[in-house]
Every structure is written in structure tokens, then in C-alpha cells.
Specification:
The complex is a heterodimer of chains A (518) and B (337).
Chain A lengths: L20 E10 L2 E11 L4 E5 L6 H8 L7 E6 L2 E3 L4 H6 L2 E4 L11 H5 L6 E2 L2 E2 L1 H15 L14 H14 L4 E5 L7 H16 L3 E5 L3 H7 L2 E6 L2 E7 L5 H9 L19 E10 L2 E9 L3 E6 L5 H8 L7 E6 L2 E2 L5 H6 L2 E4 L3 H5 L6 H6 L7 E2 L2 E2 L1 H14 L16 H14 L4 E5 L7 H16 L3 E5 L3 H7 L2 E6 L2 E7 L5 H9 L10
Parallel strand pairs in A: 3-10, 3-11, 6-9, 9-10, 15-22, 15-23, 18-21, 21-22
Antiparallel strand pairs in A: 1-2, 1-4, 4-5, 7-8, 11-12, 13-14, 13-16, 16-17, 19-20, 23-24
Helix pairs in contact in A: 13-14, 14-15
Chain B lengths: L7 H44 L6 H26 L7 H18 L2 H25 L4 H20 L4 E2 L5 H7 L1 E2 L2 E2 H19 L1 H11 L1 H6 L4 H27 L1 E2 L5 H14 L11 H20 L5 H25 L1
Antiparallel strand pairs in B: 1-4, 2-3
Classes of the chains: A alpha/beta (518), B mainly alpha (337).
């Protein structure tokens, strides 16, 4: 069992145990946006080292750098004093560093043993030595205490068992450092307990586990050392025994720079209800109910995968709805047709503008007028002048900076691309706008412009729903906030209760607390 | 509102020069694609005029277009299918079915009845193609390939495996062979059809929806476009065009056989579209360019005949040109995205 004192962690129990993995002043940017800034830490053998932080704090980026999936822009890494530079995960593997990601990388058509030894098969003149690998598998399974038949096809395994296969694969490659990104996110209660035991036993055997997790109680139960990240910065690294849930949340929040938000104009009490969602269920959405008034901005917060986008798409009738009703301006919205939703006055700005929003190779003009071609045409014939005038007015209104409305959208900045989607939405003159991650990958200046747009749209009488992983954004914009977890709306906050601690506590709360909050 | 929205006037003055610069670049980039096929076409045309005996005669030129009438019509509609993100490998089979349907009926009934039924058969088969692709979610390559076997079998049944021969002095003959200003009606009909499809794609709301459906189906759907409906219409148009092509050629040649058209025609149509620079990946394309592409291939064939080059070189040249056309398209796409 690992102790609190890292220096005394057992080092010599296994031959393949490496020394300290030292990360020094590592930075990483994505398209000018810093994801990780000057982070240094030491991962010692025989410890579970947890990385915690909000969505986008940089913990997954750090995990990917350690496991060689991406390279840092600046900074260095060394293992047992030897400098490392990985060109690929394979490089990292040869140094004993293995990642186990959320999307498992097993080959469903192969057997368990074949998966474990994939790429490192013992072979004789090209023929895999089945019996040999099966014997090795049994030995390995015994040391880690797994009970999986080597001959089962991987496709028939539960997710937890698939994860075991991944772990055994890591061990079969003599991994000394295992990086796990949200390993229990997809697991049931029993499976989680089993995985926790595995993580502990790995540390007992002198390996290091880098554990990236959203679940604070899991982190506190398993980790020896906890590093908190916020906005790409390392806030602090502490011994797990000195940490509490409160201290971790406090560290994750901190007091980062506030982006200026437009002043909130909270609507009067008796506004008409424009959108009414009752007991809505769909894939990833479980019995959600809420109302939206005109002139109101409603925020939806929650972790990635909590079902926020799924809820939006179910309301927009883009996803198959399995139960419940959506009423728009008092009348029910049924069927399965985004085009009808738009005609009825509900527009949706999807979370990834390039995949789901824009025709990137086509012009600004074509992209803006797409949803309302009827406004710029007569008998199906596009009126060129009317379209140009209309689109020019719209993009000026949403402050898009484009040299020409004929230029392809791919030549615009991310912020301007996002504003185009707003121009398209405004053209639909909706009653309700749902914006999913409206400022993702957008520079600070455009962010402010988009906040202003959302605020103006609400003031003009629309009901606006803003879904965002940026908590500050939700709290800064919304008049009321819903927090989602596991496809459910866990709590509704307004007024004084709308603060980061309450939202985070609700979003991070464990399933055991489910139901305590009506 | 705490931050003033930047006024468009300021923006205009600041960017005036770069506006002019950019939009020029864009115009060049746009017309460059047309030039990509038009310039080789012109070079070939001029070379043949100089070196090919009897090339630059009215009879030869009209003859080329008359022979290509069916291919031109089918390729024009096929362009819309490709732009919408689909693919129709059944046009050769539909063409064959239309020839025997119109031939069988024209033997015993009125010409206009035969023509109408054949066109409706083409349209109907196209609709079925579209619905299979859209609702059963079968890959268009497989769906239309499978359909081409089904249609081929039906055509065989309709004709009882016979060659149908029609008499010359009939309304049916005049459908494609009546002359106006010494140009046969087949050419006029196809010209009108091509112009309509070209305008449909380039100037109408339907055309925009076709482009959007092929460019990014997910984005199009979320923007309120009924992608399935749009795609079904393009397949229906493709079927209609194949039917029209079949009727025109039956009328021109006064004979019909179920094996007419087939894969050879299908691939010639695709070759024309691709040489014209329409992307197989969808979201981009032009009917006029396809027309030039089809005529370009026709000129190569014609020229090789006129210059008495062994005909085996025809297909080699065609293959190399297609590879060139597609590799250019790949480069352009990479550059733009």
C-alpha cells in the first residue's frame, strides 16, 4: 500500500518499475488558445496521482502529453532522469507509459488474449503462438486477479471487462505508468468498485497511475497525490490526505479573470411562457421538465456528457423522443423534423459549428440565408439583389467581419463563423433560441459580442437557452440556471443560489446523493 | 449593451482595398474551375479543326451532339445527384428499360402515349432509388447498383429478349428527328432540359438545398432542410433523364433492346460529370461544366476516329483524363478547406 510519503513508496517490487516521471514547465496551445500553461509536476512510482479541474481546465491535455498522444509546445519531460520526447503514443509505450482512454481501443472481433497481446504477439515465423500467449495470459490474469476467459470474443464483454482487457494490455507491455482518463464514467457501481481495486493494486505493485476524474469522492478515495488545474494553470499539488471535497472545488474555481458580461435585464414576473418541456425523455435525456419565458435567458450547466446537448436536440426534434411533450407558444411540437421546429419559431445553434452548423466551403451569403431561402426568393427563384441586401444587413447586425459575402466561410475566424450562425438564426425571427456552447473556440472579443447578441435577443422578446461548459458564462448570462447530470435536471437555481459552488456541487455530486435535491 | 457594435461604415473604409482584392481572388478561383475544363476543351476543339479532316463541318458537329443527346441529359441530372451527396449507377439500366418500354408501346399505341409512359417509368424508378437510399439508409453505390440488376431484368421481361424494330414514318420517329434550322429535335429537347437543370442548380432555392445536402448533410438538416426529400428529388430527376435519353435514342435509331445503355452508358455519364470537375464527395458542381465534360469526351472519341488513331487509345486517353480531373479536384478541395 502506498503511503502518504512519496519518497518511501516501494520502488523495487517490480523489475519494470521506472523512476519519477518529471514534467517541467509544459505549455500547450490550440490555435492560439492556451490549454496548458507552464505546468510542472512529478509522478512517483507506486502512487495514484489524480488530476482534477473543470471542463477545459487542461487535465486531459496534460494526460495526453504524458502519454505521447500530443506533444507540448514548450517544456520537457523526463523519466528517471532521462529526458523524453515522444512522437507518438507508441514512443511513450516503449518507455512504459500507457493510456487507457474513455473510448476503448479493443478489436471486437478478436479474443481477449489476442487483444491483450495485439502487436506484441509471440510468434514463430509469422505464426502467432496461441498456446504460449494463452499461458502468458493466464499468468498475467492471476497476478492482477482478473477472471476473464482468454478465448472470449472481446465484443461480448461488458465495458468494465473491456477496460480490464485494456489494463492487462498495458501490463503485458510492461507499463510502469498508466494514464486513465475518466475510467469510471461508463461503469456501473459494482464495476466501479472493481476498477478501484485494480487501480489500488497497480499502485501496490509499484506502478504509477495518473487518474483523471470528474468524481471528487473517487479521487479522494483512491489518490495519493492530487493536482488541481484551472484554466490551463497548475493551482496546487497536495497530498490526498490533506484535501477535502470543499478544498478541491475551491481550487478548481479560484478567481480567474472575469469576462465582462452585458448587464442582466431580468424579465418581469408575469412573462408569457414560450417553451414548456414536460417529462421529456430521449437517448441521454431522462424525464426533463422546465419552462422558459419570453425575455428570459435560461442557462443549462453540467459536465460534458450530462445530457445537455441531447436535451437541446430532443427539444428541437432532431433526436428520437421516447416520451414527454414540448410545447412551443402553447401548442405541442411533435414529430421528428428540425425544419418544422424552425418554421414554428424554434432555432438551434449546435455545439460544433464546422461539423453541424456550416457549409465551410460555401459562401457567407449561402450559409446565412440557408434556413430562410423563402425570404429571398420568388417562386423558388433566388432574388440575387434581395439576398445580398438581406445578408449584408444581417451580418452587420451581428458584427461579422467579412471582406465579402461571397467569400467562403472557411476563410473567417472562429468568432465570425459563430456569428454567422447567429445571423442565420436571427433571419428565422424565432421565439426561442437554443444555443449550445455558443462561444466554444471563440476569441475573447467575439465572446463579448456574442454575449451582447444573446442579451439583445432576449430583450427583444425571445426566450433564450444557453448551454455551456463555461460556468462563468452560464452564471454571467443566465437569469435562471438548470444543472444537469446523467440526463436529468438535478436542480434549478435562481437569485442568490446561482453561484459556482452550488452549481459545481450539484454537477459533481455522486449518484448516491441522487434524489436529495428536488 | 455596454460595448458599441462596430459600425459597418468603419469596417467598409478599413477594408475597402482588401475587399476588392479578396473578391477578385474569389472570382478567379470560381471561374478557374470552369476554365479547368473549358480551356482543354477549346484546345482540343481548335486542334481538331486544324488537323482533323471533316471535323469542322456542320454535319459532323451536329452529329456529335445528336449522338451525345442522351448522355448529355443523363449527365446533367446526374450532376444534381452527385452534388446532393448521392450517386446513381442505375441510369444505364433505366435507359435500357425506357427504350424497350417506349418501343413496345409505340408498336401498338400512339407515340405520345409511348413517350409519356417511358418518361414516367424513368421518373418512377428514380423515385424508388431515392427512397431506398433515403429511408432504408443503404449506401447509394450499393442501392443503385442492386437496382440496376433489378431494372435490367424487368427490361428483359418487357422485351421478351427481342430486338424491337420500329417503322420510319411515324410520329414516334419525328420525336427525335424532326429538324428545326437543320438541327434535329433531339438536340433541342436536350438543350432545353440541360438549361432547366443548370438554372435549377445555380439559381433556385432547390439548388441551394441540393448543395447544402451534399456539402454537409448534418448542418443542412439542423438548418431546417429536408435532406431526404431533396435527395429523393435528385434521384427522380436522374431517373427521368435516363428515361428521356432512352426515348430519344429509340426514336433516333428506331430500334430497342433491353441491353442498350447498361454499365457502359452509366460509366460514360459519370466520366463526363467527373471530367467536368463536379466532386464525387458532393456539395459542389455545375451542370454547364458537366456538359462540356461530356462533349470533351465525345470530341476525343470523334477526333481519334477522324485522325484514324487505333480506337484502343480512346479508353486509355479517357482514363488518364479522368485521373487528372479528379486529382485536380482533390487539390482544390484541400486548398479551400
Amino acid at each position: 500500500m502506498s503511503t502518504g510519503n512519496l519518497e518511501e513508496a516501494p520502488r523495487s517490487t517490480a523489475a519494470n518499475t521506472g523512476g519519477d516521471l518529471v514534467v517541467t514547465r509544459v505549455s500547450k496551445r490550440y490555435g492560439g488558445v492556451p490549454a496548458l500553461n507552464d505546468v510542472s509536476l512529478t509522478i512517483s512510482p507506486g502512487t495514484v496521482h489524480a488530476l482534477v479541474g473543470e471542463n477545459g481546465a487542461g487535465k486531459s491535455t496534460l494526460g495526453k502529453i504524458i502519454s505521447g498522444v500530443i506533444g507540448p509546445d514548450e517544456g520537457t519531460m523526463s523519466l528517471d532522469g532521462v529526458p523524453l520526447s515522444f512522437k507518438s503514443p507508441r514512443d511513450a509505450l516503449s518507455h512504459g507509459i500507457v493510456t487507457i482512454v474513455q473510448e476503448l481501443a479493443i478489436v471486437p472481433g478478436l479474443t481477449v488474449a489476442e487483444n491483450v497481446y495485439l502487436g506484441v504477439e509471440t510468434s514463430r515465423v509469422g505464426f502467432v503462438r496461441r498456446r504460449e500467449s494463452r499461458r502468458m495470459f493466464r499468468e498475467l490474469a492471476k497476478t492482477v486477479g482478473f477472471e476473464i476467459s482468454p478465448d472470449r470474443r472481446a465484443a461480448t464483454l461488458s465495458i468494465a471487462d473491456q477496460q480490464k482487457v485494456e489494463i492487462m494490455r498495458a501490463l503485458a507491455r510492461n507499463a510502469s505508468i498508466v494514464v486513465m482518463d475518466e475510467p469510471t464514467a461508463a461503469l456501473s457501481g459494482n464495476e466501479t468498485v472493481a476498477l478501484h481495486e485494480i487501480i489500488r493494486s497497480l499502485a501496490r505493485d509499484g506502478k504509477s497511475v495518473v487518474l483523471i476524474s470528474h468524481f471528487l469522492s473517487e479521487v479522494l478515495a483512491l489518490a495519493d497525490v492530487i493536482t488541481t488545474l484551472r484554466d490551463g494553470q497548475l493551482i496546487r499539488t497536495v497530498d490526498a490526505k490533506d484535501a477535502t471535497e470543499e478544498s478541491l472545488i475551491e481550487g478548481m474555481l479560484g478567481h480567474s479573470l472575469l469576462t465582462a458580461f452585458p448587464e442582466k435585464t431580468i424579465p418581469e414576473e408575469d412573462q408569457t411562457i414560450v417553451l414548456e418541456v414536460e417529462h421529456l425523455s430521449a437517448p441521454g435525456v431522462n424525464d426533463c421538465s422546465f419552462v422558459l419565458h419570453e425575455r428570459e435567458i435560461l442557462g443549462i450547466a453540467g459536465l460534458v456528457g450530462a445530457g445537455r446537448s441531447e436535451l437541446a436536440r430532443a427539444i428541437f426534434r432532431d433526436a428520437k423522443v421516447s416520451g414527454g411533450t414540448v410545447r412551443l407558444n402553447g401548442s405541442e411540437l411533435a414529430g421528428h423534423s428540425p425544419s418544422r421546429s424552425i418554421r414554428r419559431g424554434l432555432v438551434f445553434i449546435p455545439e460544433s459549428r464546422k461539423e453541424m452548423g456550416l457549409l465551410v466551403g460555401r459562401s457567407v451569403k449561402e450559409n446565412v440565408s440557408l434556413s430562410r431561402l423563402d425570404l429571398v426568393s420568388r417562386f423558388g427563384w433566388i432574388a440575387g439583389i434581395r439576398e445580398r441586401r438581406k445578408v449584408t444587413d444581417l451580418i452587420n447586425a451581428v458584427t461579422v467581419k467579412a471582406a465579402s459575402i461571397r467569400m467562403p466561410v472557411s476563410m473567417l475566424s472562429g468568432g465570425n463563423q459563430q456569428k454567422l450562425l447567429f445571423a442565420r438564426s436571427v433571419m428565422c425571427s424565432p421565439n426561442v433560441l437554443i444555443a449550445d456552447e455558443p462561444t466554444r473556440g471563440v476569441d475573447v472579443g467575439s465572446k463579448r459580442a456574442i454575449y451582447d447578441l444573446l442579451s439583445e435577443m432576449a430583450q427583444s422578446g425571445m426566450g433564450v437557452v444557453v448551454i455551456s461548459s463555461d460556468l462563468e458564462e452560464v452564471l454571467g448570462l443566465a437569469h435562471r440556471v438548470l444543472v444537469m447530470r446523467h440526463g436529468r435536471i438535478i436542480t434549478e437555481l435562481s437569485g442568490d443560489r446561482m453561484n459556482e459552488q452550488v452549481v459545481l456541487a450539484a454537477a459533481f455530486a455522486e449518484s448516491s446523493n441522487e434524489g436529495t435535491n428536488p | 449593451m455596454n460595448v458599441p457594435i462596430e459600425s459597418p461604415e468603419v469596417l467598409d473604409t478599413n477594408k475597402k482595398r482588401s475587399v476588392a482584392l479578396r473578391s477578385n481572388t474569389l472570382r478567379i478561383l470560381g471561374s478557374w474551375r470552369l476554365a479547368g475544363i473549358a480551356i482543354p476543351f477549346l484546345i482540343l476543339f481548335i486542334s481538331l479543326s486544324i488537323w482533323g479532316q471533316h471535323f469542322l463541318t456542320k454535319a459532323n458537329l451536329i452529329n456529335i451532339v445528336d449522338q451525345q443527346a442522351a448522355t448529355l441529359a443523363i449527365a446533367a441530372a446526374g450532376t444534381l445527384v452527385l452534388v446532393a451527396g448521392g450517386l446513381d449507377l442505375s441510369v444505364g439500366a433505366i435507359y435500357g428499360l425506357a427504350t424497350v418500354v417506349s418501343g413496345e408501346i409505340a408498336e401498338h399505341h400512339s407515340a405520345w402515349f409511348a413517350i409519356t409512359v417511358a418518361l414516367l417509368v424513368g421518373l418512377g424508378v428514380g423515385l424508388v432509388n431515392g427512397m431506398i437510399v433515403a429511408y432504408l439508409k443503404i449506401n447509394p453505390f450499393i442501392a443503385t447498383l442492386a437496382m440496376s440488376f433489378v431494372i435490367g431484368g424487368v427490361a428483359l421481361r418487357v422485351a421478351n429478349n427481342n430486338l424491337i424494330v420500329l417503322s420510319q414514318n411515324s410520329t414516334f420517329y419525328r420525336f427525335a428527328n424532326a429538324e428545326l434550322w437543320s438541327v434535329p429535335s433531339a438536340v433541342w429537347i436536350v438543350l432545353v432540359f440541360i438549361v432547366i437543370l443548370a438554372l435549377l442548380l445555380a439559381k433556385t432555392t432547390f439548388g441551394r438545398r441540393v448543395i447544402a445536402s451534399g456539402g454537409n448533410a448534418e448542418a443542412a438538416r439542423l438548418a431546417g432542410i429536408q435532406v431526404n426529400q431533396v435527395r429523393i428529388i435528385t434521384y427522380a430527376l436522374s431517373g427521368l433523364a435516363a428515361g428521356l435519353g432512352g426515348v430519344i435514342d429509340t426514336s433516333r435509331l428506331l430500334s430497342a433492346q433491353s441491353t442498350n445503355g447498361g454499365p457502359t452508358l452509366t460509366f460514360l455519364v459519370l466520366a463526363g460529370i467527373v471530367v467536368g470537375g463536379t466532386s464525387i464527395a458532393g456539395g459542389e458542381g455545375s451542370v454547364p461544366r458537366t456538359t462540356i465534360g461530356v462533349l470533351f469526351i465525345a470530341l476525343i472519341y470523334n477526333g481519334i476516329n477522324l485522325l484514324a488513331i487505333p480506337s484502343l487509345y480512346q479508353s486509355i486517353v479517357l482514363g488518364v483524363i479522368m485521373l487528372l480531373a479528379v486529382s485536380i479536384d482533390v487539390r482544390v478541395r484541400k486548398h479551400r478547406l
